[in-house]
Write a structure and sequence with these properties.
There is one protein chain. By secondary structure, the protein is of the alpha/beta class. The protein has three domains: 174 residues, Rossmann fold (3-Layer(aba) Sandwich); 153 residues, Rossmann fold; 197 residues, 3-Layer(aba) Sandwich (Rossmann fold). 37% of the residues lie in helices and 15% in strands. The strands form three sheets. A six-stranded parallel beta sheet has the order 2-1-3-4-6-5, with helices on both faces. α2 links the parallel β1 and β2. α1 crosses α2, α10 packs parallel to α12 and α13 crosses α14.
Length: 585
């Protein structure tokens, strides 16, 4: 009986003529893109071929996600970690529509991303070809126009470079965001008849213009105020050091939104906590009692979640709004002053001007309300106790203390938002605490943490997600396995869609649709060749060796069973939903 010999396919090393796909990949390489995230398919195959050809000569890699939305979230995480454009791709039809949730999330959170989709070959447009997504069928270019800054079909070879340049310029211009280009499969595979010639220096310049007239008006406001408070939003990247220096100079109380807290050391003596969703009583009291003469909102979108439903005690004539994105000013119409410009430049100039002034009123005023903790005695007891099941307060406060200082921590949508906002306190002010509360996509943290860890596997990465999110997209952990990266994925296991369950209870709604089966997620991980660890008790939690987990060459899954009846700090959010319901009725 003969035995068949299966030979591994080896690509030809013979020189091949350059194709249009090679021009696209060459452009990406000049942008220093090292990974592209996507899912293969017939029409996008020529682009995969071009990446494969380029990878033999230069460090660029195709990272294959398990679902296109995961690929988009990975490109988001990659962009956040590298502070450069992320790239994701998909085939035409359902592959492209699957991308849209991840792309929409990046659009709302101003993440620069290049989204590449394929089209069926142009001769098949409008002829009911399989997965036709041309303007004569399901118009993908038109659909993406609503969740990107730029969306266009590239129909001819001589359009490739000009449209790539236009797209990347749009992605990097303030406000940053995703852009989309769609390439017919026959164009990507077409021989290249010209040598691309272009410069990319104009695509990466970080312009930092400042409204000097508004800055001149701002200085007297600061000088005359006796008690100043700062409200930090999410758009403070790169400016945190100058902002904190300013706060210390003027003795300002610092509060933040739920996303803005990543730009301040939460143990800073002038920090009074989070205002808004799942915030701290101290910050809320500061705002509601108007314990300041001047509130300066910095890099703040002033969204519903970050402002307790646009609380009038926060957004009023005491507010000055400073931002690099003009669109944010539309939600602070009652503010006494708007200052537009790069935040680093603005606060650097402010600090230089203030250093030259004589003694000011605020120099004799101590910062407000720093005698008390951010937590009540009861909260501290839950954060420090050894209850069984594990209290979520204990889980999040312990994790914040156990993790290495340079850990990248990704928080998924759901109850994780609420518990982390209130109890996950870090000293880091460099934005390594990562959360996407703009679009509120479940599973964002799963894909984004993979993309970030692929971009920088030498830094510790922890993803905190819920059991509901993991059941949606937990298979993406196998991408981390395939990439040999030490991502730690922690599943908060309470056998329910926790935010739905507690939201229904707090809001007096019917109890429906929140239950999940009891699942051993560690066992599922083990079945995929990934180390899985069940955490049932506080003692097991305290014994976790993160230094070992982060030094591995493979991912780890932590299945943490928490007290499912502990109510998350989301009461204000439920009140807001009730108000919206009554308004609609």
């Amino acid at each position: 009986m003969s035995t068949a010999v299966v030979k591994k396919w080896v690509p030809s090393t013979e020189s091949q003529p350059l194709k249009c796909g090679d021009a696209i990949v060459s452009f990406l390489r000049k942008l220093d893109v090292t990974q592209v995230f996507g899912v293969p398919g017939g029409s996008i195959e020529p682009f995969f071929d071009a990446v494969a050809r380029a990878s033999r000569e230069a460090p660029i890699e195709m990272v294959v996600a398990r679902h296109e939305s995961g690929a988009a979230f990975m490109a988001d995480g990659y962009a956040r970690e590298r502070r450069k454009i992320g790239v994701c791709c998909s085939t035409t039809g359902p592959g492209a529509t699957n991308l849209m949730t991840g792309v929409s999330s990046a659009y709302v959170d101003n993440i620069p991303m290049l989204v590449i989709t394929a089209q069926t070959p142009m001769p098949k447009f409008g002829r009911k070809a399989l997965q036709d997504s041309s303007c004569s069928a399901v118009d993908l270019v038109g659909m993406f126009k609503h969740c990107t800054k730029y969306s266009s079909l590239v129909s001819h070879a001589d359009q490739i470079i000009p449209k790539l340049i236009a797209a990347v310029q749009a992605a990097n211009a303030y406000p940053k965001g995703p852009v989309h280009l769609s390439f017919p499969a026959d164009l990507i595979n077409q021989p290249l008849s010209f040598e691309p010639d272009y410069r990319l220096d104009m695509l990466t310049d970080d312009y930092s213009l400042v409204d000097l007239n508004a800055l001149d008006k701002l200085l007297p406001e600061i000088v005359q105020a006796k008690k100043i408070a700062l409200f930090l939003g999410d758009n403070c990247e790169g400016a945190s050091e100058e902002i904190i220096r300013f706060a210390e100079r003027v003795n300002a109380t610092i509060i933040s939104g739920p996303m803005g807290k990543r730009w301040v050391n939460e143990y800073h003596p002038q920090y009074a906590g989070v205002f808004g969703f799942s915030g701290h009583a101290k910050a809320r009291r500061l705002v509601m009692d108007q314990q300041y003469d001047l509130m300066i909102a910095i890099g703040a979108k002033l969204s519903e979640i970050g402002t307790n439903g646009w609380e009038a005690k926060l957004i009023n004539e005491k507010l000055i709004h400073i931002d690099s994105i003009q669109e944010h000013f539309c939600r602070s119409g009652t503010a006494r002053l708007h200052v537009l410009g790069g935040l680093t430049s603005i606060f650097k100039q402010l600090n230089e001007r203030l250093a030259k002034l004589a003694r000011m009123p605020w120099q004799a005023t101590r910062p407000l309300q720093f005698q008390e903790s951010l937590f009540s005695e009861d909260e501290n007891a839950l954060c420090e106790g050894s209850h069984y099941p594990i209290k979520p307060q204990r889980l999040y406060s312990s994790l914040a203390k156990m993790l290495p200082e340079d850990s990248r921590v990704f928080i998924d949508a759901g109850n994780a938002w609420a518990w982390a906002t209130r109890y996950f306190q870090r000293r880091d002010n460099l934005g390594r605490y990562r959360i996407a509360m703009g679009y509120g996509s479940m599973t964002w943290a799963i894909g984004a943490s993979v993309g970030s860890c692929v971009a920088n596997p030498s830094s510790p990465h922890l993803c905190i997600t819920g059991d509901g999110s993991y059941l949606m997209s937990g298979q993406e952990i196998t991408v981390a396995l395939q990439q040999n990266i030490p991502l730690v994925m922690l599943v908060v296991n309470d056998n329910s869609l926790g935010m739905v369950k507690h939201g229904q209870r707090l809001g007096g709604a019917e109890q429906i649709g929140y239950e999940l089966p009891q699942i051993n997620f560690a066992a599922i991980a083990e079945s995929m060749g990934i180390e899985g660890i069940v955490i049932d008790t506080v003692e097991q939690l305290d014994q976790l060796d993160f230094s070992r987990l982060f030094s591995k060459q493979q991912p780890t899954l932590l299945d943490v069973r928490i007290d499912a009846e502990e109510v998350p700090p989301m009461g204000e959010r439920v009140k807001g939903l009730a108000t919206s319901k009554n308004t609609c009725e």
